[in-house]
Design goal:
- With about 130 residues, the protein is mostly helical.
- It folds into two domains: about 30 residues; about 80 residues, Orthogonal Bundle (Cytochrome Bc1 Complex, Chain D, domain 2), CATH 1.10.760.
- Helices cover about 45% and strands about 0% of the residues.
- The longest helix is centred in the N-terminal third of the chain and has 26 residues.
- The radius of gyration is 27 Å and the shape is elongated.
């Protein structure tokens, strides 16, 4: 038996209200608090936007110009990235000296170091 005209309107209205409620819940859950990025996540963004043109997309492998830099010491990153130099006593892996300082990354070297440590597939120091 089919509902009468008034019954159909009530049923249609109830269905519309239920759909609107479900849509509202879906939108509210999608608009929740954004995920907090870890230092390694922020470092990955820095690496992808500043480093992979010379270093490999995989920091464990050498790139077309720059060496593999996974798990590079923090002092080396600071010297190379911010100042275009090497730390005292460090022997460069390549003799090209092509890398220029990237002073706009001041304040982000710790994030870059966290990322490079997190993707290291070799033993530290190798």
């Amino acid at each position: 038996m089919r509902p009468s005209g008034a019954g159909r309107r009530v049923l249609s209205r109830a269905t519309s209200v239920a759909c609107a409620a479900l849509l509202g819940l879906a939108m509210a859950s999608a608009c929740g608090k954004p995920r907090e990025l870890s230092a390694a996540d922020r470092g990955a963004v820095i690496y992808r936007t500043n480093c992979i043109s010379c270093h490999n997309a995989d920091p464990n492998l050498p790139g077309p110009i720059g060496p593999a830099i996974a798990d590079a010491p923090r002092a080396l990153l600071d010297a190379r990235v911010l100042h275009g130099t090497y730390p005292p006593g460090y022997t460069p892996l390549r003799k090209t000296h092509t890398m220029r300082a990237l002073p706009w990354l001041d304040g982000h070297v710790d994030d870059l170091a966290a990322y490079l440590a997190s993707v290291n597939t070799h033993h530290p120091g190798t």
